[in-house]
Write a structure and sequence with these properties.
heterodimer; A: 417 residues; alpha/beta; 2 domains; 8-stranded antiparallel β-sheet; 20 strands; disordered N terminus; B: alpha/beta; TIM Barrel; 11 helices; 14 strands; 36% helix
Chain lengths: 417, 312
């Protein structure tokens, strides 16, 4: 892989293509930076309030400003998910919060609750309002309703098919954002209160405890349908992955390709964004000659948490699209480290440790644009030059020789089985 | 407060509707499953017209609300202008909607017909009520996951009518997927080997909650999972009446007509007693006893979320 291809990235500039936008999740500031560096045109994050991932790190206004500034160097935007359905007591403070987002340079909010939509339009007109998937938009008349309400973009329900999206685009001139990758609610998003019933946690305000992935027994009038021990009922869905179908999505006119996962790891975000970035760029460089590259699919698979499918784009999911077996991490890889610097004279890189590795560990280095090579870790030294028997400590900085030149923010992963 | 709240319920058939009018229901929400969500029975346009005739001709005026509260796909939404036009012609008293496509279509196809906003679990604040009010809705149907304090504050802060479910099961999960069929496939069986429609007695049991039975069924719109308990607010109905809640809904889904009649009679008695003398009102144990006598022992009568504090 040639080094020249990623040089512009390091200067903070990327050749921006016309649509579609690649929109990535960022659970914290570091993930935001990596998502942008690996090719996201926009990232969405959560603030301290009004977001549906109460378990994610979530950004302070200060961190948002830093994120916006970093993203701007790449020409990328930052969106904030304010996608709860607010209760009375959540409404106080909403106006100040939205003004704070606007002041922090946030480009758009993603909102489901019409009260939040309207308040943002009134008090923070500099924020675009994108309608969240939590509103379950499934038909073009409803798309048109939200356009007439002044929204420039709707995020569709995950239950819409490619054909239905085409119909929406034919009827309404509005930006359409669709999830193309990641975990899926098996219910209509927002239409599930299992968490509320099982654990008193409000799923529509960020308390979802993923009860759809629990195990159940199905009974008919007192008799269990299932007679085998390990074959219980579940609603748990496989994860969405559209890497093999980007031309269809582009041609139908989807404006923003959204990756799910504000709770996902840095390694996941970088890997997935990297693959989709390359695929989208390859398509626009030569639509006629576009071919899916096996390495994009390989990379995606190295980050996968669950088996993958194509959701509702082609057909309603059936038996093959659910996970009845015990869940096992699908990808046999772990994030091992981040490149902080590289010394051309010595061929050594400084690596920040993210998982245990030692001399002899088989690792892969990858970076934006598809740079990639494998090697075996040789000597490991600390920054003072002392030999180490292993890189044991999280965030510890160590020096190792790399088989090829590497760059800051390149990543290192290891095989785990 | 001296205005009587409306006692609203469902009906599986014209026959049940007539019996529940006799038992004391003031209003019904009925419709057909192509447009309405989780209905106990089908009322096509013909039956709808008969229901309106029966209700409007009853000894005291009874209202009919058409359930058009499904999430609509393109195909369903395309047929709305004609359907809503027919409902207006029949003379239904309101159209209940949850998808904005119904609201915009009704403005042209059914002008003058009242609109009730019912998005189930996502109708959660006075600000939302006002939002839909400014766009033509006259009533908000509140999420069943709100508590008494939140409900009362919404009523105090909105000018819309407020409807609350006071009795029966609630929907807790809706997927577009045919999950029972998928599971049968996983077991190596044909979906046809198991009748998964409404009323066939299917339920789920969660591993660590063996005493709770969650009814599950499928229709053309996917799979529904229902609560394992039945809300029953008759003991505390005065709190809702005192707050001026406009409509109290009894859900009759998956219940016998005899059970529903008993429930309606009990709530009718409580509402009438309160209206006659709010200050001297007292809850009568016999109302609840009548319900308990017919209650499925595997389904607990509960306060739903009325007295809960949720976290997130």
């Amino acid at each position: 892989m040639s080094m020249t291809s990623i040089k512009p990235l390091l200067k903070g500039k990327r050749h921006r293509l016309d649509r579609p936008e690649l929109l990535a999740p960022a659970g914290n500031l570091e993930k935001l930076k990596f998502a942008v560096h690996y090719g996201a045109d926009a990232v969405y994050i959560g603030g301290q309030k009004y977001g549906l991932r109460s378990g994610a790190d979530n950004f302070s206004f200060e961190e948002m400003r830093e994120g916006v500034e970093f993203a701007a160097r790449y020409g990328a935007k930052v969106f904030v998910a304010t996608n709860i359905y607010a209760h009375n007591e959540d409404i106080e403070g909403l106006e100040d919060y939205l003004r704070g987002l606007e002041a922090a340079g946030i480009a758009a909010i993603i909102a489901a609750d019409p009260a939040i939509v309207e308040t943002a339009q009134r008090v923070a007109p500099g924020l675009e309002v994108h309608l969240s998937t939590q509103q379950s938009v499934l038909n073009w008349r409803t798309v048109k309703f939200w356009k007439d309400e002044g929204l420039p973009r709707v995020v569709l329900a995950r239950e819409t098919s490619l054909e239905e999206i085409a119909e929406m685009k034919a009827h309404v001139d509005i930006e359409i954002e669709a999830f193309i990758h990641g975990a899926m609610c098996s219910s209509f998003s927002g239409r599930c209160v299992l968490s509320n019933h099982f654990t008193d946690r409000d799923s529509n305000r960020g308390g979802c405890c993923q009860s759809c992935r629990w195990k159940y027994d199905l009974y008919v009038d007192g008799d269990s349908v299932n007679t085998e021990q390990d074959s219980q009922f579940t609603m748990g869905s496989k994860d969405l992955c559209m890497i093999s179908h980007l031309p269809e999505l582009i041609e139908v006119g989807v404006d923003s390709f959204k990756i799910e996962g504000r709770m996902k790891s840095l390694h996941y975000v970088a890997t997935v964004v990297n693959a989709y970035r390359q695929a989208i760029d390859a398509y626009f460089a030569d639509p006629e000659g576009y071919e899916l590259k096996p390495e994009w699919v390989d990379e995606i698979n190295k980050s996968a948490n669950r088996p993958l499918n194509t959701g509702f784009f082609f057909d309603t999911p059936g038996t093959e699209d659910h996970i009845y077996e015990p869940e096992q991490k699908a990808a046999p890889y772990d994030f091992a480290g981040v490149v902080l610097s590289y010394d051309e004279a010595t061929g050594e890189a400084v690596i920040q440790q993210r998982n245990h590795f030692k001399p002899g560990t088989e690792v892969e280095f990858f970076g934006p644009g598809g740079t990639f090579f494998k090697q075996t870790v040789e000597e490991i030294r600390d920054l003072e030059g002392q030999l180490l028997d292993a890189a044991r400590h999280p965030l510890q900085q160590v020096r190792i020789r790399t088989a090829q030149p590497v760059h800051p923010m390149d990543m290192m992963r290891k095989r785990i089985r | 407060m001296n205005t009587k709240p409306e006692l609203l319920t469902t009906a599986a058939s014209l026959g049940e509707l007539r019996k529940l009018m006799e038992a004391g229901a003031d209003a019904f929400i009925i419709g057909e499953s192509k447009y309405g969500a989780r209905l106990p029975g089908e009322f096509g346009l013909q039956e709808m017209a008969e229901a309106v005739e029966a209700a409007h001709g009853f000894v005291r005026p009874v209202r009919i609300y058409a359930a058009v509260n499904n999430l609509m796909d393109n195909a369903a939404a395309d047929s709305l202008p004609e359907y809503l036009g027919s409902l207006a012609q029949i003379g239904v008293d309101a159209i209940v909607f949850g998808d904005p496509s119904v609201l915009v279509t009704a403005r042209e196809a059914a002008p003058g017909v009242a609109l009730h906003w019912n998005a189930e679990m996502t109708s959660t604040s006075y600000a939302q009520a006002d939002y839909w009010g400014r766009r033509g809705a006259s009533r908000i149907v509140l999420a069943r996951e709100l508590n008494m304090e939140q409900i009362i504050e919404i009523k105090q802060r909105t000018s819309l009518e407020v409807q609350v479910q006071v009795h029966g099961m609630t929907n807790i999960y809706h997927s577009k997927r045919s999950l029972v069929d998928s599971y049968m496939g996983h077991l190596g069986k044909e979906p046809s080997e198991l009748d998964s429609r409404l009323g066939q007695g299917l339920y789920l049991m969660e591993e660590e909650r063996r005493d709770e039975r969650y009814p599950i069924y499928q229709d053309a719109h996917g799979t529904y999972m229902m609560s394992s308990d039945d809300v029953c607010m008759i003991e505390n109905l005065h709190e809702l009446m005192e707050a001026g809640i406009d409509s109290l809904r009894v859900e009759g889904l998956m219940k016998t007509t005899a059970y529903n009649e008993t429930v309606i009679r009990a709530y009718r008695a409580a509402i009438d007693a309160y209206a006659a003398d709010p200050a001297g009102y007292e809850f009568k144990e016999e109302w609840l006893d009548a319900i308990r006598a017919l209650q499925d022992p595997s389904r607990e009568l509960s306060y739903g979320f009325f007295f809960k504090e949720q976290v997130y």
